[in-house]
Amino acid sequence: MATLELKGITKRFPGVLANDQVDLKVSSGEILGLLGENGAGKTTLMNILYGLYGADEGEILIDGEPQQFSGPGDAISAGIGMVHQHFMLVPVFSVTENVVLGVEPVGFGGVIDMKEAKKEVRDISKQYGLEVDPDAVIEDIPVGIQQRVEIIKVLFRHAEFLIFDEPTAVLTPQEVEEFFGILNGLKEAGKAIIFITHKLKEVLEVSDRIAVLRRGAMVGEAEPATATENDLATLMVGRPVELVVNKETSDPGAAVLEVRDLVVIGDRDQMALAGVSFDVRAGEIVGVAGVQGNGQTELVEALTGLRDVTSGTVKISGTEVTHATPRQIHGHSVAHVPEDRQRSGLVMPFTITENVVLDAYYEEPYSHGISMDWKAAREKAADLVEQYDVRTPSTEIPASSLSGGNQQKVIVAREFGRDVKLVIASQPTRGIDVGSIEYIHERIVEERDEGAALLIVSTELDEVLALSDRILVMFDGHIVAEYQGGSVTAAEIGLSMAGAAP
Amino acid sequence: MTTKTVALDEGVVRTPAEIKRSRYLGITYLLLAAIVLFFFWRWSGDLGNFTFKLARPLDPSAPDLTLSASRTTMIVAVVLAGLGGFQLAKGFGKFNNMVLGFGIFLFIFAFLGWATAQSSLGAFSMVGMMKATIVRSVPITLGALAGVMSERVAVINIAIEGQLLAGAFVAVVVASPLATADDSLFLGAPLGSWIGVGAAILAGMLLAWVLAVLAIRYIVDQIIVGVVITIFVGGMTAFLALRWLADNPQLNQAPIFKSIGLPGLSSIPFLGPVLFDHNIFVFGAFILVAALTFLLFRTRWGLRARAVGEHPGAADTLGVNVYRTRYLNVIIGGAVAGFGGAFFTLGSVGRFDENMTNGRGFIGLAAMIFGRWHPVGAMAAGLVFGFADAMSQTLGILQTGIPSEFLGMTPFIATIFVVAGVVGKARPPAADGQPYIKQ
Lengths: 502, 439
Description:
The complex is a heterodimer.
Chain A: E1 3-13, E2 16-27, E3 30-36, H1 42-49, E4 57-62, E5 65-67, H2 72-77, E6 80-83, H3 95-100, H4 114-127, H5 143-156, E7 161-165, H6 173-188, E8 192-197, H7 200-206, E9 209-214, E10 217-222, H8 229-237, E11 255-265, E12 271-281, E13 284-289, H9 296-303, E14 311-316, E15 319-320, H10 326-330, E16 334-337, H11 341-345, H12 352-356, E17 367-368, E18 371-372, H13 374-387, H14 404-416, E19 422-426, H15 434-449, E20 453-457, H16 461-467, E21 470-475, E22 478-484, H17 490-497
Parallel strand pairs in A: 3-8, 3-9, 6-7, 7-8, 13-20, 13-21, 16-19, 19-20
Antiparallel strand pairs in A: 1-2, 1-4, 4-5, 9-10, 11-12, 11-14, 14-15, 17-18, 21-22
Chain B: H1 16-44, E1 49-53, E2 65-68, H2 69-89, H3 96-118, E3 123-125, H4 126-151, H5 160-178, H6 191-217, H7 222-245, E4 260-261, H8 271-275, E5 277-278, H9 280-298, H10 300-310, H11 312-317, H12 322-349, H13 360-370, H14 375-398, H15 404-422
Parallel strand pairs in B: 1-3
Antiparallel strand pairs in B: 1-2, 4-5
Helix pairs in contact in B: 1-2, 1-3, 2-3, 4-9, 4-12, 4-13, 4-14, 5-6, 5-7, 5-12, 5-13, 6-7, 6-12, 9-10, 9-12, 9-14, 13-14, 13-15, 14-15
């Protein structure tokens, strides 16, 4: 029986204590759930364990023996395998090529023995019930299968200790169930598993023990049998957290957004949207659920004027805006919270002030003729920072120095901080802490109660379920199902998300 | 996410881009047919026959190809029109590119036939033109191979032109004093010439190393580094040629590598002289294409190199040394380019002239893209450009009335046409041009 132990691990980055005297232990045949918010230091800890960073203090023990890792190669040969949150797969390589990369079976002259490699992949896949086609090319297979390839990859390297970093983030509910089956199979085969997540439900379902990390320090352990979601959330955040969104039933008015037969071509010339029609009415939150890559990104881009529409129509408050520019659409009182806050939501090197007037800098009161009125802009920024609880020492620091949650609040402040009739928000709470999620959800519901129409696109099914009055499910460029909020379970939506007929 | 062609209703599996391309191709065929019909046929109706010579006096004998100009152009026009019609109506699907190649071949055949028939000579040496095609493709292919090696590990090498020029210069300067005409020959050249080739390879490697250090360690913009190296080498060699070689002509006259006829193969009619009777640079290019294809796609080293170019993060987490792989590949690419540079002097004219590479390195870059970052594709593209080059030369001899300045532009026009229109969307290595910064 093998044991992996971390003792007193401390890691400092300039100005941040990422890990503070962390102790951790996991043994064969056991699943340890490592729970913590984004920025709690989970990933740093695992990168130390995987040899990507060196720890400032503390040691790593395997079966009581101290280890020195100067790179991932050392960690791999010590039996540690990591399945990264963002898969480390080469998209144009086959399954087998990805599995053997770095430890290729070779014959004379460094020629790869593909036959042998394929056989080994097949053997592992049979032994652990990880069904894959060794010849399939990664970019052609679904994310769930790609994850299997990652698991085969670590097993191929004879890993005894498997680390999964947020493995369920990209999976459909059905794939999550399958994944838990695989985890249990690995556990029974005698592997030691560390399962990193911020999802309370999942950690309770699958772990044998739960360790909670907060601000770099281990703040407690819990037993899945006795702990509740609320206990864990409190431990994780450091204060009691409201896990459900409180809202009255909706009272929708006239349609604000009308989409008819929308066809949009994606970046790879594929049909991203194949004729989509729906309405969003005033005072209503419509959630769009679906696994990432089924047309949601293109839908939001098309509605906000960022992508050409091939055919179909889009109307906002009765005016046709199908081919309108983003600024024209903005002029129709539309707020847009984009999917990737760092790429399209904010200009990272700009200050908070500059970022909050990005959508209106050309208008009064921020500019008079060709000259900017920075005083007015600063006043507005100070106002919004106060009102939207953005935690920052000043409005004159670059957006890049804020935490993810606060960056998101800056975007929400800019977009909601004026009269809006329609809100289009994509992944509004991706990668931010529970406290900020709670806050942003409250603002979304508030906008609805003030009579705005809201379209919320999220791959987090729990978020869609919690917020939506009506839920649309997208699959392969189509809306495949529509549900009333509150009357549907995650399992039902999950089936539609996977493309099964409702 | 996954790349897939989503089937529309009624099972149409063509994306709008494909449909657009199909239409574009169809119209191109019809246009070509029209040119052949109204331009060549009308004019060559009374031109009589034309003759393509398939053997030169000392070559293995082969009969001449003599055809009626009017009949040939008429048939070609009809076939091209048929291709265009079919392309517009249904499309050739996955055979699109093959059919396009065939269509262009027909057009060029008709054009050459017309040009020959209207010329006072009435005949020209096809074997000479094809042989020139192969020879002229060599520096382009080698330049493209250098690009492939470098870009497969995601380092953009725009310095190929400079590496070629440096190779050309160093080769002749080293070989001239060392090689004398009465030395015994090894594979077509005295030992001194071989040392010149070795020096050219080292020069290419040195420049590649400079590129690698600046691009990989100091993360300088790769395009800028490449341009700077090219300009530097251009200026430096021009200066040295003017100030130093001009006063020391004995340093600028080296024996040229002689042709080697492969036993047996070189006596095949037509194909023998075209393919199997060349100097070592031509055979070297063929061998390098085969060797690099094997290395890149069959060996452990190649798998790791390609992984570094596609997803360096993944390669790194699996214990592959990203930096070392990049250095190694870029420097191998430099060696290939240096060898290609030696061709300009030792393989061709035996002396160095200012800017004698004349953009071949950049055409090589285009050939790399046209060849989709694959050594075999790079060679095929090199041959296309080599053909454009050889044909412009032939047309000059045939006196078509087209000004020679225009004919000289042919390879460059072919480059623009090929890169803009024919290639379609080629996909470079995913991390191409991006420096890798370890966390």
